[in-house]
Design goal:
It contains 22 helices and four strands. It has helices at about 5-10, 25-35, 40-50, 55-80, 85-95, 100-130, 135-145, 145-150, 150-180, 185-190, 200-210, 215-225, 235-245, 250-270, 280-290, 295-330, 340-355, 360-390, 410-425, 430-435, 440-455, 510-515, and strands at about 485, 495, 500-505, 505-510. A hairpin with a 2-residue loop joins β3 and β4 (about 505-510).
């Protein structure tokens, strides 16, 4: 693989070296946060707001946001500190080298589900604004992201930085104007009860389950955070600010967007009851119409939808291609390149769009959240407790073939138990009462079982070999990855110390090691 191709691939499936990470913490953070410009939040907020009422919806959103923020902290820190993605983290945080193939597929599923959701929203915008039929809109929203995704972080960072201010203005201005125009709207919104009569805990948890499907967004944030510069005394404040804001902090803006979505859904219900209040393009079209001429309002609504779709779906396609490539390479011992799986991910997303997944959005997200919560909670707990508190496994990450056991019962049993029990609850196998609490079951079981299994197994399944055959340490005394360059004897390319090892008498990089038969 040539050096130009390696840069093009954005160091897929491997440590992102110091020499490649030339962005400032601020640029990495803005790029990562640009990926959360999706409009699905508005649809989710409107859906649970119209169904369960404003108070229940806000409680749902806040509970989910707190869980997502807390579980995201250890994952974001680990990714930014050691410059690896969530799949590489998962391998050494309880799942094993092959065990994390399961979670790679779960993450890939997240990316194509949300690509399809955002693509559907864009197609709705193109249909409303330009009269383009939905089926053609789905095709346009799919194929327009391909050129940007191919060029990875370098193209994505420029796209996200330049489009974020425009997106923020278009999102905030019409909502602010509605409140300015009618100051009684907020009080009417808070009094809205939907189909419920007052606060209902079951309704809150059902709403939270839909919101918690977004817990997997931390994986996409990490795909950018792995390019953070090394943490130093000089940049420590900026480094931590960027990691928290762009890592778990994404959910703060996400929660605000969901509440705005609930507000706009309520506004449409009262002003235009025949219009679908869960479609973001209709929400913003109505909001812009309150302050601008009809032609300009419609134009800006479509522009907002298109910008949002591009910003998030380049991230979905990019992250999904990484996840699929990771799973395939370990199973088949062959690295086909990321571009092939960009196309695979887009093809699945397009099929979902053509199948009108938007119509069953709540059910799909509620079901998916059980898997997502179980995985994220297990990995976050493994890092925070098993690595740092109980010291059952090495603090520094390990993800290379042969250094790890293929399967680690700690993460696998905890994940399968948490996901399995929560899905049984979700489908009502434990009764109607527990059905609403399936996300909490996934969270509690994953959080409890991970340290228990770590203590039972005494951490023996985390590391198979403690020495990789090279005398120099992979990390310095303060935990910074060592930047010494080595040449892989297989692909004849240079890689930094964390990414190489001795194998069969020669130095090989982690990816070449993955393809060994």
């Amino acid at each position: 693989m040539g050096k130009s191709n390696e840069t093009l691939e954005d160091y897929t499936l491997r440590y992102a070296p110091h020499s490649f990470r030339r962005w400032s913490p601020q640029v990495v953070a803005i790029t990562a946060l640009g990926g959360i410009a999706y409009l699905a939040d508005f649809s989710i907020g409107a859906s649970i707001g119209l169904t369960y009422g404003t108070t229940n919806a806000i409680f749902s959103i806040l509970i989910a946001a707190i869980i997502i923020f807390l579980t995201g902290i250890p994952l974001a820190y680990y990714a930014a500190r050691y410059n690896i993605d969530l799949d590489l983290i998962t391998r050494g945080a309880g799942f094993g080298y092959l065990g994390s193939v399961i979670t790679s597929i779960i993450f890939a599923s997240f990316t194509f589900i949300f690509f399809a959701l955002e693509g559907s929203i864009m197609a709705q915008g193109l249909q409303l604004g330009l009269g383009i039929p939905l089926w053609l809109g789905y095709l346009i929203s799919t194929f327009m992201v391909i050129p940007l995704v191919i060029y990875g972080m370098k193209a994505l960072s420029k796209l996200q930085v330049w489009t974020t201010p425009i997106w923020l203005i278009l999102m905030v201005a019409p909502v602010a104007f509605l409140v300015y125009q009618d100051p009684t709207l907020p009080s009417q919104f808070f009094d809205f009860t939907g189909k419920q009569n007052g606060v209902d805990l079951a309704a809150i948890m059902l709403g939270a389950g839909v919101c918690l499907s977004l817990i997997m967004q931390i994986g996409e944030q990490i795909d950018y955070l792995r390019f953070m510069p090394a943490k130093t005394k000089e940049n420590s404040k900026a480094w931590w600010t960027a990691v928290i804001c762009a890592g778990p902090g994404w959910v703060i803006l996400g929660a605000i967007k969901q509440i705005i979505g609930a507000f706009l859904g309520f506004y449409l219900l009262t002003k235009l009851p025949l219009v679908n209040g869960t479609e973001p393009v209709q929400q913003f079209n109505a909001a812009f119409h309150a302050m601008l001429p009809d032609w300009l309002a419609l134009l800006l609504a479509v522009v907002l939808v298109v910008i949002s779709q591009i910003k998030i779906n380049v991230t979905n396609a990019y992250s999904g291609s990484l996840a699929w490539t990771s799973a395939y390479t370990r199973i088949k011992k062959h690295y086909p390149g990321r571009l092939i799986f960009v196309m695979v991910n887009l093809a699945i997303a397009l099929a979902l769009m053509e199948g009108n997944m938007f119509a069953v959005l709540g059910k799909i997200l509620g079901f998916y959240s059980n898997f997502a919560i179980a995985w994220v909670v297990v990995v976050a707990t493994d890092i925070a407790l098993n690595k740092y508190l109980f010291k059952l496994s090495p603090k520094h990450p390990e993800y290379r073939k042969d250094m790890l056991y293929n399967y680690n019962p700690v993460g696998l049993i905890a994940f399968l138990s948490a996901a399995g029990l929560s899905i049984c609850a979700f489908f009502g196998l434990f009764g109607t009462f527990l059905a609403a609490y399936s996300p909490i079951i996934a969270l509690v079981v994953g959080f409890v079982l991970t340290p228990v299994l770590g203590l039972i197994t005494k951490g023996k399944f985390y590391i198979q070999h403690h020495h990789d055959g090279i005398d120099e340490h992979r990390f310095t005394s303060d935990g910074t990855p060592t930047a010494t360059v080595y040449t892989c004897e297989r692909c004849v390319q240079t890689y930094e110390r964390p990414d190489v090892m001795h194998s069969q008498g020669v130095i090989v990089c982690s990816l070449c090691k993955s393809t060994e038969q």
